[in-house]
Write a structure and sequence with these properties.
single chain; about 475 residues; Growth Hormone, Chain: A; 19 helices; about 80% helix; globular
Length: about 475
């Protein structure tokens, strides 16, 4: 009887730990699955969609980059909305909106309609994933956070693994519109689970929404990204591109002045004074640029360059998602054993070399070699993402979680958007340099070499980390 009495109180605690550590992260991961599945399916389907919509494949990168831009622009509102109306309510509404905008994407008949629907989808995604992550941050003790974040990303990693094959099969044997209609049953499942199990957390005091900050950052980022998309492309006049850069830079400078000393600023720039936060967001951006460009470049290389069907290309590129999924279970013990700094530094070299290796693929390269390299690349990229996503909260206290999550997510979306645009721009430059009018097998490798070299810039940031940085998050201090 004494044993039962002793065990009794621990049963609710075990159930709470199970819900907090596994169930809630998995449900929020379903929302991430919606986004990653859509992103990887779309990247593989892009060349076929370009033919169906009578567009240049390099122009269709707008369907990816405008989604990411919309998500970044509306991300600052997500934290405030979660505090004001309750994170669960905002999360549920975002899942519904994401499903509806996915249906709109599937019904688009030209590039303009597709891009507009993708912008709406990005707005919904801006509320869905960060708010879901915020629920996790506010309900999980810091020493359990790395494990919970790993569970959170497992459903999301099914997207990169299943997406290329599924998307390739859809556009090869069916119709590309179904890559968007597939989101609807997943959205329904996520909605049911969120209503039933996700806790509703919010702040007691909600600061007023910084409308001026929202307008300045939104306009600033939109002008810079759109100007970057059209740099050297002869699509809009050069003077207009210069004007976009000037207006975008001016808006962001004005926001910096506006945010100084303003405790209600929509983006809390003071968080960048925290070394681990600054290094994770700014240093990690160089790595994420290459990560954002990779699916886009692989689809063009394998399908247009090597002449594979979307289904054949998907059967190769799904290995990246498989490697990432395997790594998620290994990431927490690796971080406990070696620490954040060692993992980020060594892994940055490995990931950068693998980006360079992608540029060595040729049409006659055996498929087992391509699959092996992509598997290893997905494995180590996943470790880098997990490490960066954990390190960003190393010095963040609970009252700052909302704003830290917003800035981190915003940085990820922006750098991936710029990564896709940068890849399209460099492909255009390579074609002009080679005197080609159409993309071929020799166009993509130089771009892989360029983005691979760019990823090494992150090393200059990671080397500045203290050897014990983030140890309280992965249990190294407790074990010692």
């Amino acid at each position: 009887m004494s044993e039962l009495r002793a065990a009794g109180p621990s049963a609710p605690a075990d159930r709470d730990r199970l819900v907090r550590g596994w169930l809630v992260p998995s449900i929020i991961g379903v929302a991430l699955l919606l986004q990653t599945l859509n992103a990887t399916v779309l990247a593989n389907a892009l060349p076929t969609m370009a033919v169906a919509l009578h567009e240049d494949p390099l122009r269709l990168n707008l369907a990816i980059s405008m989604y990411l831009l919309a998500a970044a622009v509306f991300l600052p509102v997500s934290g405030w909305a979660a505090d004001k109306f309750g994170a669960k309510r905002v999360f549920v509404i975002a899942v519904v909106l994401y499903g509806l905008s996915s249906a709109a994407c599937g019904l688009a008949t030209d590039l303009l309609q597709l891009v507009l629907a993708r912008i709406l989808q990005g707005m919904a995604g801006a509320l869905m994933a960060p708010v879901g992550r915020l629920v996790l941050l506010r309900t999980t003790p810091k020493d359990e956070l790395v494990g919970a974040m790993s569970v959170l990303t497992i459903p999301a990693l099914l997207g990169p693994m299943v997406g290329p094959v599924l998307g390739g099969a859809i556009v090869t044997f069916w119709d590309w519109r179904w890559i968007f209609f597939l989101n609807l049953p997943i959205a329904v499942l996520g909605l049911f689970l969120a209503v039933r199990y996700v806790p509703n957390v919010h702040e007691q005091e909600v600061s007023p929404l910084d409308w001026r900050g929202v307008l300045l950052t939104g306009l600033g980022f939109a002008c810079l990204v759109f100007g970057f998309e059209n740099l050297g492309r002869s699509i809009v006049p050069p003077a207009a591109v210069v004007a976009l850069f000037v207006v975008g830079s001016a808006c962001l400078w004005l926001y910096g002045q506006h945010a100084r000393g303003n405790r209600h600023a929509i983006i809390d720039l003071s968080l960048f004074r925290l070394k681990t936060f600054h290094i994770s967001v700014i240093g990690g951006a160089y790595m994420r640029l290459a990560m954002g460009a990779t699916p886009f470049l692989l689809a063009l290389m394998l399908q247009i360059g090597f002449g594979m069907s979307p289904f054949q290309a998907g059967l190769l590129t799904f290995m990246s998602g498989a490697g990432a999924l395997v790594m998620k279970t290994a990431a927490p013990p690796i971080l406990r054993r070696f620490g954040f700094r060692s993992v980020l530094v060594v892994n940055a070299v490995i990931v950068g070399v693998l980006f360079l290796a992608y540029g060595l693929f040729r049409a006659d390269t055996p498929h087992w070699i391509i699959m092996s390299v992509l598997l290893i690349g997905g494995f180590f990229r996943s470790l880098q993402i997990t490490s960066l996503n954990g390190m960003v909260y190393a010095e963040i206290e609970q009252p700052q979680m909302s704003r830290a999550s917003t800035i981190s997510s915003m940085g990820q979306q922006l750098t991936q958007s710029v990564g896709v645009g940068l890849a399209a721009l460099m492909l255009h430059w390579v074609m002009r340099f080679q005197g080609d009018t159409h993309l071929d097998a020799g166009t993509v490798p130089p771009v892989f070499f360029a983005v691979g070299l760019l990823s090494f810039v992150s090393l200059a940031y990671f080397l500045r980390l203290h050897p014990a940085a983030g140890d309280d998050m992965n249990g190294r201090i407790r074990r010692a």
